[in-house]
Amino acid sequence: MASNRRALRERNGAGVASLRGGPIRSPYWQNVRTIKMLIESSRQLGLAAQLTLRRSVLVVISRRFALAVRKKVTVIGGGMTGGAIAQRVVEKGIADVVIQDDPQFAQTLHHGKALDMAQSASWLGFETKITATDGWGDTAGSDVIVCTAGAPRKPGMSREDLLNGNADIVRAKVTDAAKASPNAVIIIFANPMDAMCHVALQASGFPRERIIGQGGALDTARYRAFLQMETGVSIRDIHAYVLGGHTDTTMVPVVSQARIGGLPLTSLLSQEKIDAIVARTMRGGAEIGELMKVSSAYYAPSAATAEMVEAILLDQNRLIPSAVLCKGEYGINDIVCGVMCELGAGGIKRTFETPVSEDERSKIVAAADATKSLIALLK
């Protein structure tokens, strides 16, 4: 049987494992007759190997069919963050991207960024398209909309300071975006994010599954980065999450469930070092703003957002901490708060109550209470 498998690999130019790992990329593999011949040749193998091979081929075909029907992502706001998100998404090759912005503020910046990114395709090899628009017609039918519109934080400014100014912007943008793309999933990036999710829910009329706050994914990235810096292990082996709110005082880096290669975080670091990492995570955005001085963060935020977009477009069923209108999670009702969410087609498929300590649970509830207080200040 082993010799038969080797002969099959030599005959067709690649092993079964190459099919399992992703879409067929070689033009030779793209040939339909080649796939048919591969299936016919599998008859030389045992039944289990035949089934594995045929399943792999079907997965490849379904992936290529899905990619043949182009998805569309609209990024509202062409600033540093919006531009970075657009770049990461279009370079993944999973969707066409439209950057929408208001020429009154952006002038032609978003058009320049889109053109610049489009010209990189010849070297990076992505086939998806990126364009810019001042209106909403070109955004129609978007599958995912990322709303980054709003003023960024400046040094010394809290996310709460941005409340009503950004609420007016988000309300107007989401209203127009939802009219153009009534079936879209909207990811909210503008701050204060938890409160802006409430604004988006009201402006769009969408169900809670399709209005998602991005903060938990970003805060989780920062938490893991600081843990990696302290432990020195590969960041791929760090499993730690941030729940609760997306402000300097309401986010909850979960220590009780943090694992490093399966080992409890508390078995590797002292409580003093853990407390320092938690505190630094909670000020992660402020620290970068202080260092950059002229802007806020956009590399890590765009990476986190692009992962969320990919999970939704490709129906990956990823578990990513995200802000959602809670319906009983941790005893929270009708307030947006960060919890563990399963992201896939249509947005949030399920939410989960990650087991946490009593102290962490109380902080998550307090985060929701803080958001409730902010909502009361909305005009």
Note down, in words, how this protein is organized.
By secondary structure, this protein is an alpha/beta fold. The chain folds into 3 domains: about 1-70, no CATH class; about 70-215, NAD(P)-binding Rossmann-like Domain (Rossmann fold); about 215-375, Alpha-Beta Complex (L-2-Hydroxyisocaproate Dehydrogenase, Chain A, domain 2). Helix content is about 50%, strand content about 15%. It contains 16 helices and 14 strands. The strands form 4 sheets. Strands 3-2-1-4-5-6 form a 6-stranded parallel β-sheet, with helices on both faces. It has a 3-stranded antiparallel β-sheet with strand order 7-10-11, covered by helices on one side. A hairpin with a 2-residue loop joins strand 10 and strand 11. The longest helix is centred in the first third of the chain and has 22 residues, at about 45-70. The N and C termini lie far apart (about 70 Å). The relative contact order is 0.10. The model is unreliable at about 1-30 (pLDDT under 50).
Q: What is the structure about, briefly put?
A:
The protein is an alpha/beta fold and 379 residues long. The protein has helices at residues 2-12, 16-20, 27-30, 32-41, 47-68, 80-92, 103-106, 109-118, 121-124, 163-180, 193-204, 215-231, 271-282, 284-292, 299-313, 358-377, and strands spanning 72-76, 96-100, 130-133, 144-147, 185-188, 211-213, 238-239, 242-244, 251-253, 259-260, 263-264, 318-327, 333-344, 347-352. It contains 16 helices and 14 strands.
